[in-house]
């Protein structure tokens, strides 16, 4: 079995750190499996794990990491700050609490989970700035090796740039053949923000599309491998989620082939603007 640990490319952040272009996502409501996480770490060579306070599995993940035997320095661990804990003091406490639950002294990447601060009587911009300044301090203190945002649009990123000193290292956004926010991707590249995509299979909706099925047949790959390969071939850090061993292995085996230019173009034409997760376009 080819472990992706030796073949998975890495993407450089603006501060020189390198994040594996493929990771394993987790989620709430049954989106975590201890056995599958162990399998991913031990058998598939996965070294990039994405989680969040919101998902409620940080403590379980800590146990899996310890049991896996993978050295801490070989792992890239991302977790996220929930809007209910935005604000300067609360953010700092939430970050350290996440570290404690994960059993680590530092996070590789800490993300603001959502642009809407959900604080009555205060503007989202005001709360985002206050929160980001706390993350900047955590970054300068080494508690977070990199900091970023999730679900932020160009308008949110521009405001943050005006108000703060550290440009986010990463923006994690929904990204799949039906949701290709090219203006946002291009803005992030111009600003040195690594673009990371979640829901690469559009929560399964992409797996039955005729174009994707046709390409799966052409390349003798699965539809999910076509979608993930398309994403990473676009230079997007990609974090498919699964709690099944066979699916995790399948999702990791995307570095042994390359999609032809005309097939990349065909997939590029599938954008129809649909969101299968949150839609941040209504957030000021």
From TrEMBL:
Fetch the CDD domains from UniProt.
AKR_CeZK1290-like
Which sites are catalytic? 55 (proton donor)
Domain NADP-dependent oxidoreductase span(s) in chain numbering: 32-269
PROSITE patterns found in the cross-reference section: ALDOKETO_REDUCTASE_2, ALDOKETO_REDUCTASE_3
Going by the UniProt record, its keywords in alphabetical order are: Oxidoreductase
Residues bound to substrate are 113
Database matches in SUPFAM superfamilies? NAD(P)-linked oxidoreductase (SSF51430)
Kindly provide the name given to this protein in its UniProt entry: NADP-dependent oxidoreductase domain-containing protein
Which GO terms fall under molecular function for this chain's record? oxidoreductase activity
State the family it belongs to: Belongs to the aldo/keto reductase family.
Q: Where is this site: Lowers pKa of active site Tyr?
A: 80
What Pfam families does this protein's entry cite?
Aldo_ket_red
- Coiled-coil residues: none
Species of provenance: Oncorhynchus mykiss (Rainbow trout)
């Amino acid at each position: 079995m080819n472990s992706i640990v030796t073949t998975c490319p890495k993407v450089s952040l603006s501060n020189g750190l390198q994040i594996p272009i493929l990771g394993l996502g987790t989620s709430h409501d049954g989106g975590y499996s201890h056995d599958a996480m162990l399998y991913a770490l031990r058998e598939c060579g996965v070294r990039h794990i994405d989680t969040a306070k919101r998902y409620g599995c940080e403590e379980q993940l800590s146990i899996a990491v310890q049991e896996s035997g993978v050295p801490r320095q070989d792992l890239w661990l991302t977790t996220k700050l929930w809007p209910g804990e935005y604000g300067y003091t609360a953010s700092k406490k939430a970050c350290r609490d996440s570290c404690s639950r994960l059993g680590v002294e530092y996070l590789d990447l800490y993300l603001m989970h959502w642009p809407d601060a959900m604080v009555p009587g205060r503007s989202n911009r005001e709360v985002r700035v206050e929160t980001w300044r706390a993350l900047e301090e955590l970054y300068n203190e080494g508690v977070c090796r990199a900091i970023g945002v999730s679900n932020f649009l160009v308008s949110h990123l521009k405001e943050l740039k005006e108000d703060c000193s550290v440009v986010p290292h990463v923006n994690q956004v929904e990204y799949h053949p039906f949701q290709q926010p090219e203006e946002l991707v291009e803005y992030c590249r111009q600003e040195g923000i690594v673009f990371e995509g979640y829901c690469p299979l559009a929560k399964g909706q992409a797996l039955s599309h005729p174009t994707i099925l046709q390409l799966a047949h052409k390349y003798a790959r699965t539809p999910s491998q076509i979608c993930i390969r398309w994403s990473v071939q676009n230079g997007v850090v990609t974090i498919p989620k699964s709690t099944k061993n066979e699916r995790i292995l399948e999702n990791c085996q995307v570095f042994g082939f390359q999609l032809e230019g005309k097939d990349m173009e065909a997939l590029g034409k599938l954008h129809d603007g649909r969101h299968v997760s949150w839609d941040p376009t209504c957030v000021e």
